[in-house]
Amino acid sequence: MAALPSTVIEFDLSDHSFRPLRLDELVISRQEKNKIYWVHCDLNDKDTFRQLSVRLQLPEDVIQLCEEDELLPKLNDSDESLTMRIQCLLPCEPHRIHHDVDFGNVVIHLTQHYCFTAASHPIPALSSFMHNYPKAVKYAKTPCFILFLMLDNAINDYSEMLLEFDLVTDQIDLRIRETHKNIYDEVIDIKKQVMKIKRYAAAIRDILMRISGRKITVVSERCRASLANLFDHSQVIISEADAIRDILNSSLDQIDNALMQNMSNTMKVLTAFAAIFLPLSLIAGIYGMNFEWMPELHWKYGYFWALSLMVVCGVGLLLLFKKMKWF
């Protein structure tokens, strides 16, 4: 799946209309307050990125964030702009829950006239925005509505993935009673992925807390209230991740207990067999000594006596352990 191509959309807030623009048509006028823009750049296209950097006069810190590949959240704000780098889920095929969950960086640069986004991977949150902005534009007042929709899509993707993990966790709880060779590794793997989602969701929560908790020029009061609701949603997601982690920890404890029980049963069987053969070895050892005066050595039925004694001891111990339910 290819990354979302570079896109420019012009929104007219006076009549809540929109229209796509070519890159060479992009001219941002500071005087026309009714017109705002969404500018998205596919970072795999270096030439387009350089052109947009010049046209939008992107600050150096924004360009640096776009050029870095490390999966680390970041937030920079000034009097005229707000810049962040968040981690969004990459496309995942249905029922691929047992594979690693992958993330990609999305850089968002918000000003009073436009919202610039950039990514080098196919990001479902961006694709969802492409489908939803025609309906959402009628509620738009500032470019902040683009930021809100982007963060909302990212958080919803986290929520949907955690729901899948929740379903898998319930299935694992039922499978623990059966014998599955890789069930322990499977639980550990899912737990790692849940914690990865929690870590990135917590990063978005912290960004939302900083944005919604104080006045920023490019964030309107109405948008700040919406971002506060997103903050609450992110808190719910983190709590859900913690709940799934606790269930998985409980599953690991059950698996450990089952393994210890199986090991205990195995040791019982081995101990029983060792106890059965111990008196047999003792009898064989006694009559194997090379002393001259041993009455049974010259007895006509000495051999059969020794074998009979071994059989009686072995069968007696076997019946005893059967009664004790060691077998």
From TrEMBL:
Keyword Protease: no
Transmembrane segments: 269-289, 301-321
Reactions it catalyzes: Mg(2+)(in) = Mg(2+)(out)
Locations listed in the record: Cell membrane
Keywords (A to Z) from UniProt: Cell membrane, Ion transport, Magnesium, Membrane, Transmembrane, Transmembrane helix, Transport
Classification via SUPFAM superfamilies: CorA soluble domain-like (SSF143865), Magnesium transport protein CorA, transmembrane region (SSF144083)
Matches recorded under PANTHER family: CORA FAMILY METAL ION TRANSPORTER (EUROFUNG)
GO molecular function (one): cobalt ion binding
Gene3D superfamilies referenced in this protein's UniProt entry, alphabetically: CorA soluble domain-like, Magnesium transport protein CorA, transmembrane region
GO cellular component terms, A-Z: plasma membrane
Organism superkingdom: Bacteria
Function: Mediates influx of magnesium ions. Alternates between open and closed states. Activated by low cytoplasmic Mg(2+) levels. Inactive when cytoplasmic Mg(2+) levels are high.
Organism of derivation: Aquicella lusitana
UniProt name for this protein: Magnesium/cobalt transport protein CorA
Sequence similarity: Belongs to the CorA metal ion transporter (MIT) (TC 1.A.35) family.
Lipid bilayer topology: Multi-pass membrane protein
Database matches in InterPro entries: CorA_cytoplasmic_dom (IPR045861), CorA_TM1_TM2 (IPR045863), MgTranspt_CorA/ZnTranspt_ZntB (IPR002523)
